[in-house]
Specification:
By secondary structure, the chain is α+β, with helices and mostly antiparallel strands. It has helices at 8-14, 31-45, 62-67, 94-102, 108-115, 118-127, 132-144, 148-155, 162-173, 179-189, 193-203, 209-226, 231-244, and strands spanning 21-26, 52-57, 75-80, 83-89. A four-stranded mixed β-sheet has the order 2-1-3-4, sandwiched between helices. Strand 1 (21-26), helix 2 and strand 2 form a beta-alpha-beta unit. The model has no long low-confidence stretch (mean pLDDT 92).
Length: 245
């Protein structure tokens, strides 16, 4: 759709609160713009309404170009929740445009991870073997069910990731006979992350170096699962550092 200064707020900013809106800034005299148009239009159409394409003629709407700090065209900006979340300038080949749009809408593997059962997670990995969230979720599910060998096998390709490393360490800790460790793993099994972190970190000063390293990996893995800015991570990160050093 063509967007003007009068319609930009409703058709782009407000609409982007419901669905990602990609804005193509162009002009009649711009050759690369004419080459880009059919490529990006086809890529958006293939996504069946999961993303919307808006076009802004910068000669007819100079205020929009100025407000978006467009200095060269074609310029493409993606809006989500009223804000620019990604952009590119110039004529890109179709695979790069597909990658740009894929960052805005969930992939098939993303949707399967949201379902979260074993069959969906395995299907996600069949669809995209490099999908880390699917691998972590499936490894965590298998470990929680005591299917430890299967969990290790699923997580082995992701051994570079601290969260995957933490799940494997958690499997090892489940066999440790130490009160705080046992209480921490039990809390983790019932998704009491505050209790789990508290007990596991409390155990650190009382154990040998090998077990201390397993505890560190498990706690860091929980941090990765929750996210760096989660309140529990902020609460327990300094406690972990103090207990280790």
């Amino acid at each position: 759709m063509e967007v003007t200064e009068a319609t930009f707020n409703d058709e782009v900013l407000e609409r982007s609160r419901e669905v990602p809106v990609v804005v193509d800034y162009w002009a009649e005299w711009c050759g690369p713009c004419r080459h880009l148009a059919p490529i990006i239009e086809a890529a958006v159409e293939a996504r069946s309404g999961e993303v919307v394409l808006a076009k802004v003629n910068i000669d007819q709407n100079p205020a929009l170009a100025q407000g978006a700090q467009v200095s060269s065209i074609p310029a493409v900006k993606a809006f989500v929740d009223g804000k620019v979340v990604d952009e590119f300038v110039g004529l890109l080949p179709p695979p790069q445009i597909d990658a740009f749009l894929n960052r805005l809408v969930p992939s098939k593997a993303d949707r399967l991870v949201e379902i979260g059962d074993e069959a969906s997670l395995r299907e996600a990995l069949e669809h995209d073997g490099s999908h880390l969230p699917a691998r972590l979720s499936l490894g965590r599910l298998l470990a929680a069910e005591g299917r430890n060998d299967e969990a290790r096998e699923i997580l082995e390709p992701a051994s570079f990731d601290p969260t995957a490393e933490g799940i494997v360490a958690r499997i090892e800790l489940a066999e440790v006979d130490q009160p705080d460790v046992a209480a921490g793993i039990a809390a983790l099994d019932r998704e009491d992350f505050d209790g789990a972190l508290g007990h596991l970190i409390d155990a650190v000063p009382a154990v040998d170096d090998d077990l201390r390293e397993l505890l560190r990996k498990t706690v860091v893995g929980i941090f990765g699962q929750l996210g760096d800015q989660h309140p529990l991570v902020l609460k327990h990160r300094k406690r972990l550092a103090r207990s280790l050093y």
